[in-house]
Amino acid sequence: MNQKIFVSAKEVADRAGVSRSAVSRTFTPGASVSEETRRRVMEAAEALGYHVNHLARGLMRNESGLVCLIVSEMDTPYRASLIRAISRQLQNVSKIAMLINTDRSDKSVDDALRLAISYRADASIILSGMPDKSISDLCVKSGQRLVLINRDEEREGALMINLHDREAARRAFIAFQRAGCRRLAFANSDVGTPSLMAREEGFVSAAQAAGFEVAVERFGSTRYQSGVVLAQRLLTREVRPDAIFCANDLLACGVMDTARHQFRLEIPNDLCVVGFDDIEQASWSSYELTTFAQPVDRIAEEAVSWLAKPLYDAGLSCKLSAELNWRGSVRGG
């Protein structure tokens, strides 16, 4: 089997009859090179099949151009949309996303970060789990930058991007209250991430401050089937809720289908439902789900713009708002 041999810049220079530095300047944006030299170099590169080795160029400047995305549950709609937005933003600034699939455990994130360091990644964006502080310190010492999305513990030198989850939860309570709902419930997973728990705690706190009790159920992962189980638990209680705030849209879809098909309830007449994320399915006519939209494009912009700043720029915390999209799953919406 023939081994692929990459064409070198020197070979292009020899064929074009120019210096090696002229080839480098030709492929460097903004560099000074005559039109005749550029023409000869480009013709030679085309004939030989030459492509610039951006990785080698970057390593000469102590940059690889690689940014690791450390992700779990990448097949879920919200996570997929966030990966798409971040990778697009990275490409816009000539960075390459390297995807590392993890579970939700902190150890898997630590292992992923060590892998990122070994590949000399410029940065890692963590969407799952929380790295050990010693691993975070190792990243900083190795010149790698960290972006932590929806994590609750600060890391020195890292950018923390979170949502105003508690404020969104308070708005969900107000929506139910104005719709005339009195028997409230919160459907959550067992995952226990900071963002999910902030939504639960914010909703319960807002309701209790107004004199309402909230039935809370937690089960499984943040997926559709967990929503089915949560609906079965909540809707077979002695006091059946007339409003359920779900920690995310996949849970809400499972709750709504179970309420309608197993319990013959009408939404929103018998049961009002609010979700979180605003995944594509939320707008489908089968659901018409009232939900909070994750600002995925803004999250991606904040992460990538911070990575483009000088290394001495200190870490910071960024809080974003999730806008409520009214649809047909809440009366009066």
Automatic annotation (TrEMBL):
Keyword set, alphabetical order: DNA-binding, Repressor, Transcription, Transcription regulation
Domain of life of the organism encoding this protein: Bacteria
InterPro entries named among the record's database cross-references: HTH_LacI, LacI/GalR-like_sensor, Lambda_DNA-bd_dom_sf, Peripla_BP_I
HTH lacI-type domain span: 7-61
Organism classification: Bacteria, Pseudomonadati, Pseudomonadota, Alphaproteobacteria, Hyphomicrobiales
Protein's name in the database: DNA-binding LacI/PurR family transcriptional regulator
UniProt cross-references to SUPFAM superfamilies, sorted A to Z: lambda repressor-like DNA-binding domains, Periplasmic binding protein-like I
GO molecular function, one term: DNA-binding transcription factor activity
Transcription regulation as UniProt keyword: yes
Keyword flag DNA-binding: yes
